[in-house]
Amino acid sequence: MRDFRSLVQNMTNIKQLHLSWVEIFSTVPNTLVNVSSLTSLRLHRGFLVGQFPVGIFQLPNLQVLDLSYNDYLTGYFPENLNSSSPLRMLDLGTTNFTGHLPASIGDLRALNLLNIAYCDFYPSVPSSLANLTQLNFLDLSSFFHSGFNGPRNNKFPGQVFDSWSWIGKLTKLNYLFLVDTNLRGDFPCFLANLTQLSELYLGYNQITGQIPDCLVQLTQLTVLDLRSNNLQGAIPRSLFELRNLEYVYLNSNNLSGNVEFNESSKHKKLILLHLSLNKLSVQFRTGFTAPELIKLGLGSCNLTEFPEFLKYASELRHLDLSDNTLQGQIPKWMWSSAGTETLYHLNLSHNHLTGFEENPVIIPWSSLNSLELDSNMLRGALPIPGPSMTVYSVSNNEYSGEIPTAFCSRGTLTILDLSNNNLKGMIPQCFENLRFLEILKLQNNSFHGDIPQMCSNKSAELEAIDLSYNQLQGKLPRSIASCYKLMFLNMGNNLIRDTFPSWLGQLPELKVLSLRSNAFHGIIGNPASTQEFPVLSIVDLSSNDFSGMLPSNYLENWDAMKSVNETDEVSYIDKPIRVGIEVQEVPYYDYPITLFSKGVELKYLKTPYLLRLIDLSSNRFEGQIQGIIGNLRALHLLNLSNNTLNGSIPSSLGNLTALESLDLSQNQLSGKIPSDLAQLTFLAYFNVTHNRLYGPIPQGRQFDTFQEDTYQGNSDLCGKSLSKKCQDSESKTPQTSTFEEDEDSGFHIELDWFVVLPGAIAGLIVGMVGGNFWTAKKHDWFVETFSRRRQTRSTRRRRGFRT
User: Fold this and answer.
1) Which of 276, 402, 444, 734 registers the highest number of CB atoms within 10 A of its CB?
2) Hey, which CATH number is domain 157-250, 3.40.640.10, 3.90.1150.10, 3.80.10.10, 3.90.550.10?
3) Over pLDDT 90: what percentage of the chain?
4) Tens digits of per-residue pLDDT, 505-550?
């Protein structure tokens, strides 16, 4: 609509103005404040902008006001609302309204619908809402967060659920939405007063305690959503006496005990049952049926066999049986009976399945959109995805053979994950035809040959490419420069022979670049502009054959490594997965990555969003370490070991206040260790072995924790943690300096076990003292850790270690 103002300027006597779903792209004209005859204003999804005229709330005859789903429409409530207002419907859901929610909202006693979900009101919900006794629909979802359009920062701590007891007075409620409202405390029984309630949504809160028996009074309940809370104990048997229940979400809690469904179970109307991610043991006895069932979530429910009642679930669309102990083969009846024509999403990952009862060449469910078979024991040839499939994920299995070229005809694929199998052969060159591919993960197989073109043929949707740990050869395809959405590129541990791909610098979203352990070579020149690699956070070029000076001009431009937004709630570099219009209960697809630090292989199950890392080790870089590197204040890990760097350690490294690991070993560095490094309070690993350093080592803070093996191969260093103590004469510059390479004196760690431990800011395991690992910070990131022997000098360029 070109001119909303012109449209309404002469409508002085209009009663109803309904423009929902009309693309207005305009502000709401102030002239509507004077249209006293207006009874109904519906502007739902109108792409409205600017500030809503506050006077419209005071129109004397207004009964319906619907502004919902106008994300960029701002506004606020007047402090005093008209107590004689006839307003019956007020819907501001998913707008950018903000400010104080006045107590006078309780004076709008004619209201039967109030929706202020996903706005930015504060600081609390007034108890005067108890006066709205005619309410039929109430949605206060996400009230205690910072708004729909910005990052949520949990600025307000929420309220104890018991303080919302006024809700119990709204006895005419049919629909109650308190999703993601930061409610905490035990589940209250005042909700049992709402005997007309049909739909109850309390998901994504901090509700604790048990599900109370008093809910049995809600006999009209058709939807019960308690997902993603901290509920404990058994599911009360009385809950299953509610005959009208159709949708039950109890997933992602701490519920425990046995749940049994048998012939006498009263849930004949069940359409959706989601019990995943609890500590439940679920059993389905012979005779149980749920003929209307379309969605079943039983992940981690201790199932040992496929529920037989699924034979009769002909309308099934979504099935999650992941993380159970299902064994053997997937029975044939699963595709000949259960949702043969309707099944849309199937997740059988993390079980002990070995294959299909009758091996299909093509996945048998004709309408299947998403298939997850990860972490089983599936073997044989890859089954070909169906014609409408978008997600095909079979990682961590035992599939072998080559990728059939028929995959290339599945143009709807958005996620293809074949990682960690026994596949071989060449990656089909026709993969360039997968126009909508967003994630391609083929790591840890035995693929060889050239890498196919990416993002060609008008395809530029790729966000993540992981081809690491294969035997791929040739050069990086230059077409990757067209993948303008690419965030994650891992080509590590292959046989790629190429020069530094400076042409990737134009990618605006590239955060992770790993080229480690290949045959990249040559000098890394100067960037074409100061805008190269604008958001690069993790760069691993280790164990290649790069030469020349360190790429100081690139280091100077990597702004993402200079600071981080500590208030950003994004934890990992990942991607939401959508199946149809619904975000799955495990909504993010993670990007694992393997990095190396202090001679230890660090395998991140998820790549931390805030991690900042530079690894240029095991190349042929020479010359001095430039002081400019001290500007990268957000760095957590810096590894320049196994090069031929000379000169002194720049004191500017003391500016890297977030640094947790610094490895400068196996170079030709000289001079003293700068005392400025002692101010690195998070430094948990430090290695300067086998250089030409002299003089006293820094004292205090972290340096008091480093052992003598941190400094080996620097015979002129002294200090209290070394066998050689400092004297006045030893702090002076020696006349001569010696440096000997000792092939058998390098730092050596060998572990024969596998550990999973919490890490520091980067999920990093930062040290080993007396057999105990210790960290600099405590965060919720986890890292799988393996240790490998350092390789011989002859394999240094390939792996980056010494024995």
Assistant:
1) 276
2) 3.80.10.10
3) 65
4) 999 999 999 999 999 999 998 998 888 999 999 999 999 999 999 9
